[in-house]
Amino acid sequence: MARHRHPLTVSLSLENWPAVDRAAWDEANRAGDILEGRGLAAHWRPKTRLSGLKAYACWLGHLRRQGRLEHVASIGDRLTLENLRDYIGTLRASRSPNTLLTRLRHLSMVIAAMDPTADRTLLNHAIGRLTPLARPARDKRPKLVSPIVLFDLGMRLMAEWQSRKGHDPRLNAMDYRDGLMIAFLALCPIRVANLAAMRIGRHLTFTSGRPRIQFAAAEMKGKRAIEFDLPEVLRAPLEFYLRQIHPLLCAGPLDTPPLWPSLARRQPQMTPHGIYTRITQVTEKHLGVAISPHLFRDAAATFIAELAPEHARMAATVLQHRSFGTTNRHYVHGLQHLAARKYQMAVDDVVARHGSSTEDSGTLPSA
């Protein structure tokens, strides 16, 4: 029996958009130049542009099914109370609050770029009312693992990389590569898209012998360049990786070879999906819980907030967020009682190791 797609997933393809919408989309994405300027969406990242395109195509598809895709003089003319109420009601019947909110935000973003004069008051009012209702669809806390545990796993995989017997040596090399990726993410929780894009000589450079990580603003989600030295504890593992492991995985000489090569012939560089799959498989095998690369970011923010609350705002910098508000809303999952329990355990451990000699010192001895 043939399976039928849900009506809301049957969007209106770009070639079937009304002429006014196609023209507005093309204008919004016009590259332009210094003299003519460029469209309001020309600076969007490909992923943002695709999300916006899907949201607007879904909106037009709904209007067509309702027989309301009549010709209009401007994009904003369709933002009527009747159209929005029916569209939001239909979405709410089959989508989670998070999906609904994301869809409406992207729709508002696209309309603002395609028709800057459009009155989006009703749409933005709905977004404002729905925002408090949106909560993470899944509780991440059961999957949160301390960055220390993740870092230890990475170091262990690198130390035991030759433990396989009678296998293709490249499989052993993959174990070392995976360990280095995991240890790197535990200390430097960048986004998986950036991790996958890393190339030697471009994103990994060497200044006076020191390995340095750098990404241009255009490569970052927040459009802010980042640059930092590789943590010292990873420098020796990286040196060994580049000297012994990387040549086993990399297909051939390149000007800027991928830092994380893949064994796939058609895809010599690991993709974000490939890294996601590999890391979740490895962490589930060794830790009993599948930790995605994105959860490394949650773990870092929560670790800072719980064990060093006075430096909680530092997490925003670590995760490359513009404000701590974003970090606090989406990445900090710690609870006060959990933080208190961990602090008490740390104090108990210090007392057990150092006895009463610390009672009058005024400071805790270093671990």
Question: Can you put this structure into words, describing what you see?
Answer:
By secondary structure, this protein is mainly α. The chain has two domains: 7-133, no CATH class; 151-286, Orthogonal Bundle (hpI Integrase, Chain A). The protein contains 14 helices and three strands. It has helices spanning 19-28, 46-65, 81-92, 97-114, 121-130, 147-159, 169-187, 192-197, 235-249, 272-287, 293-307, 314-318, 324-330, 336-354; strands at 204-207, 210-215, 226-229. Helix 7 (169-187) packs antiparallel against helix 9 and helix 7 packs parallel to helix 11 (293-307). The longest helix has 20 residues, at 46-65.
Nutshell version of this structure?
The chain is mainly α.
Number of E-state strands: 3
Helix content: 40-55%
Series of H and E elements: HHHHHHHHEEEHHHHHH
Please identify the top-level CATH class of the largest domain: Mainly Alpha
For CATH, the homologous superfamily of the largest domain is named as Intergrase catalytic core
Q: Compute the separation of the termini in Å.
A: 65 Å
Number of helices: 14
* Overall average pLDDT: 81
CATH-defined topology of the largest domain: hpI Integrase, Chain A
Mind describing the biggest β-sheet?
Answer: 3 strands, antiparallel
